[in-house]
Amino acid sequence: MLPGIGQFLLVLSLLLAAALTVLPMLGYARNSQTLMQTARPLAHVLFITVMASFVVLVVLFVQQDFSVLYVAENSSLELPLRYRITAAWGAHEGSILMWVTVQALWISAVAKFSQSLSLSQISRVLSVLGLIALGFVAFVLFASNPFETIFPVPADGRDLNPLLQDFGMIMHPPLLYFGYVGLSVAFALSVAALIGGEINEQWIRWSRRWTNIAWAFLTMGIILGSWWAYYELGWGGWWFWDPVENASFLPWLAGTALIHVQAVSERKNAFRGWTVLLAIIAFSLCILGTFLVRSGSITSVHSFAADPFRGIFILVLLAIYSGGALTLYAFRANQLRSRDTINLNSRETLLLANSLIFITATFTVLLGTLFPMIFEAVGKKISVGAPYFGLMFFVLMIPMAVILPLGSQLRWHRDDMLAAVKQLLPYFIASTLLTVVVWLIFKPLNIRAIAGIYGGFWVLTATLGQWFKRPGRATAGFIGMSVAHVGVAVFLIAMSMTEHKDIEQDILMSPGITKQVGGYDFTFTGVDRVKQENYQAQQGHVEVRRDGRLITTLNPQKRFYPKQQMPMTEAAIYVGWSKDIYVSLGEAVNQEGAWAVRIYIKPMIRWMWFGGILMLTGAIIGLFSARIKRQEDKQRDHVMAQQLKLS
Amino acid sequence: MTPTRKRRLILISLVIFGVAVATAIFLTAFKDNMMFFKSPTEVSAQDYPQNRSFRLGGMVKEGSLKRIENSLKVQFDVTDYGADVAVEYEGILPDLFREGQGVVAIGYMASDQLFVAEEVLAKHDENYMPPEVADVLQTQEQP
Amino acid sequence: MKKIVITLIPLAIFVGLLTLLFLNMGYHNETVPSPLIGKPVPAFELPQLYEKGTLTEQDFLGEPWLLNVWGSWCPNCLYEHPVVTDLAQSGQLKVVGLNWKDEFENADAWLKRLGNPYDTILVDYKGNVAIDFGVYGAPESFLIDANGIIVHKIVGELTPDNVQNEILPKLAQLK
């Protein structure tokens, strides 16, 4: 009964999405107000039906309805209620349904918060968003239906993958989806603008707010993913340049370029075509990322059920959306030609350079991710090692860090480049001194670590300096930018320390033995057994001392989930201000209770994520500036309308 | 030349310069970090890159896993049922590393006979699991 | 005109990328063939679960059969059980179970609870024969022809889909 209702709601959503795609666009083509006015109500109803089907899925999990294949595969009688709810989006089918739900929520929000757009504009935007929803609802229904039933009904389910029984992994996918879907708004705006052959500042300002929100979500999603991999996979790494990670990083890079270019194009009639193109690229990369993760085309250590039909389906969606948008771009982009000229000595130029750096980074990551495929086409199996990505990224981030303070120093429109450079001189000196001090304390440091720390201090001192020297009151836009840039600095410094000053040791430890790692004494006191609701574990005890004083006792676990027949390493981490102490269990080595123990000391790793959080906070603060501007605009539009009436 | 043209020319040449530098770095970085994937059959036919790392993939041969007494060193054979390659690794093996399971080892050939692994990956796969894991725990549960 | 050429560049790159991805899907659709396909069944001599005496590969000559590797410990075997039952009951071919790395009590209880779809059940509790077959895990199934040649292999569970589209067509070719 209930699965049938869920299914029915999905079919209804499919029809509604089709109507949302066709009717407003038809209205636009025929200039029919009535048809265009259907856009907003349709958007809201679509959200209601999709949301309802998602709720149905959650209820099926709560009720343990194992007649539904997806529930049987991802839940079990022992699974605690909290994980039963989150299991609704734990595996492929449910997570795509969640994507669609978030998409519908966003469409509804766009319909609501778009009073500054004209009916002709919003009907086009919603129609494009409707087309995106249509494709993904169809994908759920035809290629990954979570409501599919099985007979005979199993007595118990297969349980949720233990890796997913964790807060970080529960929040990670929804956050990414909010990001992906948020970028679809900028994409829809681009397509709508290309269809109509017109775009203006107000329209870009409107879409910039959505981009900021999307980018903030994406950043949060990536931070959580990195944090999760760090404590849950038991290897202590925070970024592996794995294809699945790159899939979420690619849209972020393109989105970063987009945000910076929008800062220009919302102010003046410049970089219009580039803004539109970046928005198309950013969203296309979201779909491409989904394809890479779901199709099984690329081997990754993270597992997802691979299914060629799903892969083809997403590829067809990609061909329709991105192919369509880029075709429109090819023939229409010239109509959006920017009229204002850009002075070379201005902030605009630097922002353009920034976007070029980030797009180059996007392409190098994309190439590294796809190169194995190209080689496979000629019959060779290769992979591209993480050092490639690390090196490329390092090389590209140098010019980024170098020009960042110059960009925020230069004024809009036109400035004196030489004077700006001179004003940066004190920061250059300050950052050099700071770097030397850090080097003296922490030497030896390799060239990359020094460059990263130097770059971080350069951005930090300049951003703080510009903050105190700013003329007048700080606008929300300025605050947002400064906070985000401090985040960049914090990230650069922390990342350099974590990457280059960490200690990683795998040690054989018998009970009672003490080993010294990085100035700390680690005493292994043995392993005992623990039993929890749906797993059993062997729990080790490691006492950590510094100069004889007990700092903490860490209890890493080796868990076993019987339903899934799956072992899991649960690291124990001592979180300090300046470093993490990370201990995880390998395996029992002999009968006398000796274990392989992994001990890591990770300096400043939390600061790295904190830097990311500052970046997204900056993006959110930036929203408020846009709001003030929008109010001013409304006022102005109002006034202009009055004047028109009078004349 | 009008000032606009001139500016555009400067911009375009800057972009081209940037792209050229990036491409050069890209090619070097790529060449150094490209890793081939080889099967045990290929390796035993001497078809592997000399003096550089590559990835060796196959199944961990049943009964081949040996631990060197009082160390974290292990030895095992990787097989594709056509040929076997002996692998040596020092460190902690991943959770899902088991005999009879798929494995990918990153490392180099120390001699014609021995592959020294610097990293060992076992794929996470929740749908496909050999019984050893269950056995191990069942025996541990009954002390 | 020149302008359009420039704005066409992103589309051209995209088309290249899409072609690559489509081609690549093609590669992945071909399942990796087992080295055993087209070769005779490895020689074995195994006891049976419910009958006395051992059987060898010679005992199965004369008609096509399906060797299904399973264990009571294997969660996915539970899920393919209805499919195996349907296939066996359709009478289109003989379905032989290979009870792998199991214990008699567990296997017996499992079959009593769910029903026994198998014509014959071979027992390989040490797992030696499974190695000869190149079994990676359970479930796994081998389609073998009347002359004892392995024709096809399914890694993972049997589903209505792969029975319909792989097993039955291959079987039809044999007849």
From TrEMBL, chain A:
Subcellular location: Cell inner membrane
Highest taxon of the lineage: Bacteria
A GO molecular-function annotation: heme binding
Cytochrome c-type biogenesis protein CcmF C-terminal domain residues: 315-623
Lineage, uppermost ranks: Bacteria, Pseudomonadati, Pseudomonadota, Gammaproteobacteria, Lysobacterales
Record-annotated Cytochrome c assembly protein domain positions: 89-295
Main location: membrane
Name the record gives this protein: Cytochrome c-type biogenesis protein CcmF
Classification via NCBIfam families: nrfE (TIGR00353), PRK10369.1 (NF007691)
TM ranges: 6-29, 41-62, 96-113, 125-144, 177-197, 209-229, 249-265, 274-292, 312-331, 351-374, 386-404, 424-442, 448-468, 475-495, 607-626
Family: Belongs to the CcmF/CycK/Ccl1/NrfE/CcsA family.
InterPro entries documented for this protein: CcmF_C, Cyt_c_assembly, Cyt_c_biogenesis, Cyt_c_biogenesis_CcmF
A biological-process GO annotation: cytochrome complex assembly
Protein task: Required for the biogenesis of c-type cytochromes. Possible subunit of a heme lyase.
GO cellular component: plasma membrane
Alphabetic keyword roster: Cell inner membrane, Cell membrane, Cytochrome c-type biogenesis, Membrane, Transmembrane, Transmembrane helix
Membrane topology note: Multi-pass membrane protein
Automatic annotation (TrEMBL), chain B:
Cytoplasmic side: 1-8
Matching PANTHER family: CYTOCHROME C-TYPE BIOGENESIS PROTEIN CCME HOMOLOG, MITOCHONDRIAL (PTHR34128)
Positions contributing to heme binding: 124, 128
A family per Pfam: CcmE
Species name: Marinicella pacifica
Keyword Membrane listed: yes
Descriptive protein name: Cytochrome c-type biogenesis protein CcmE
Keyword Nucleotide-binding included in the entry's annotation: no
Gene3D superfamilies for this protein: Nucleic acid-binding proteins
Keyword annotations: Cell inner membrane, Cell membrane, Cytochrome c-type biogenesis, Heme, Iron, Membrane, Metal-binding, Signal-anchor, Transmembrane, Transmembrane helix
Database matches in HAMAP family: CcmE (MF_01959)
GO molecular function term, any single one: heme binding
Recorded GO CC terms: plasma membrane
Family under the similarity heading: Belongs to the CcmE/CycJ family.
InterPro entries xref list: CcmE, CcmE-like_sf, NA-bd_OB-fold
Lineage: Bacteria, Pseudomonadati, Pseudomonadota, Gammaproteobacteria, Lysobacterales
Coiled coil: none
Chief localisation class: membrane
Protein localization: Cell inner membrane; Cell membrane
One GO term of the biological process aspect: cytochrome complex assembly
Described function: Heme chaperone required for the biogenesis of c-type cytochromes. Transiently binds heme delivered by CcmC and transfers the heme to apo-cytochromes in a process facilitated by CcmF and CcmH.
Topology of the protein relative to the lipid bilayer: Single-pass type II membrane protein
Regions of this protein lying in the Extracellular compartment: 30-143
Originating gene: ccmE
From TrEMBL, chain C:
Entry's localization field: Cell inner membrane
Domain Thioredoxin: 35-173
GO biological process, one term: cytochrome complex assembly
Main location: membrane
Source organism of the structure: Marinicella pacifica
UniProt name for this protein: Thiol:disulfide interchange protein
Gene: dsbE
Keyword NAD applies: no
MF term (GO), any: disulfide oxidoreductase activity
Cited PANTHER family: THIOL:DISULFIDE INTERCHANGE PROTEIN DSBE
GO cellular component, one term: plasma membrane
Keyword Transmembrane helix in annotation: no
Keywords of the record: Cytochrome c-type biogenesis, Disulfide bond, Redox-active center
Record's bilayer topology term: Single-pass membrane protein
UniProt family annotation: Belongs to the thioredoxin family. DsbE subfamily.
